[in-house]
Amino acid sequence: MKLLIRFTGYEQFCAGKDVASCTAVTEKLADHKVFSVLDYANEHAKSTADYEHNTAVVLETIAAAKRTSAYPFAVVKPSAIGSFELFHKKAAGHKLSPSKQLIWTAMQQRFEQLAKAAKQAAIVLMIDAEESWIQDGVDMLVLPLLRKYNSDKVVVALTIQLYLKDRNVLYKSLLKDADEKGYVLGVKLVRGAYMEKERSRAAALKISSPVCDAKDQTDSQYKGALQHALKNLNRHFCIVATHNQSNINWVVDYCSQANISLGNANLWFSQLYGMRDYISFSLAEQNANVFKYVPFGPLEQAVPYLIRRALENSAMKSQTLQECLMLKKELKKRKLNG
């Protein structure tokens, strides 16, 4: 088992098996002014019992966030608390049978329960994005929550994956909807973590891939989304969730030129636990709001997440030397300051 844990990178990317076991990691991050979100690494659940269990665990993370300022967020993966199949059916416009409709209503109630708990705890509940072909179904449950709970401040935030085509069009329409209906839009801007799966599915189904055709198109979309977000910080909320150093630098420079504080309450930065620590610590030293996604859960449940991180790491091999140099610089600085 220990060999399997080392092979999957469990100890590098996951903080432990449950909420309590994350404390050692999150306290160390807090020492460096880096906040945490406890991320239950579970997805694609299969049964009502699993959905209810996963909801209870997320509620436990919300309770932990209510107790400590180190956890200003909670997060949930839609497929952990609801049927992937039904998300897909709703996204495809299929009418549900009476029995399936009851299941759908129960899914809606779980999201409502989590949003209500987040409001009471005075934290932000982030809704993760997953595969593109269920996203419209997820949005049917999430968008009404934004309109209901975000009347004067952000309580619920959704995720926009900028490696998918036309996501900037979606973002602009959401900003317009929020302004017209009088709620605060909360978004987390990411590139995305399902690229190969998306392209493989599109090829198998002989349909157009939803993923941008080239990296520079994703880069352009991400930069455009950042511009939308920064221009609307007076009203709306954004999490810049990226490991891309050039994007981080661009945001920092933009804020400097526009006289926007990196500590603006509506602007946060996020990286994954076990990755790009030098970015997180550097931002925190500049008094930016920054947090780490800190996954936890039993090894067997965390495997899909760990596989994506392994793929992401292999895709970043060209940046390994830079990371080593930055970490060496960070360690030297701490030694001098220690």
Q: Estimate what percentage of residues fall within beta strands.
A: 5-15%
Q: What is the C-level CATH assignment? A: Alpha Beta
List the strand order in the largest sheet: 1-8-7-6-5-4-3-2
Summarize the biggest pleated sheet: 8 strands, parallel
The CATH architecture can be named as Alpha-Beta Barrel
Low-confidence runs = 1-7, 316-321
CATH topology: TIM Barrel
Provide the gyration radius in Å: 19 Å
N-to-C order of helices and strands: HHHEHEHHHEHEHEHHEHEHEHH
Distance between the termini: 37 Å
Average pLDDT for all residues = 90
Say what oligomer this is: single chain
> Overall 3D geometry?
globular
Return the domain count.
1
Write the SSE topology.
Elements: H1 2-8, H2 10-13, H3 23-31, E1 35-40, H4 48-67, E2 73-76, H5 78-81, H6 84-91, H7 98-121, E3 124-127, H8 135-149, E4 156-161, H9 167-181, E5 186-190, H10 195-205, H11 215-231, E6 237-241, H12 245-257, E7 267-272, H13 277-285, E8 290-296, H14 299-315, H15 320-337
Parallel strand pairs: 1-8, 2-3, 3-4, 4-5, 5-6, 6-7, 7-8
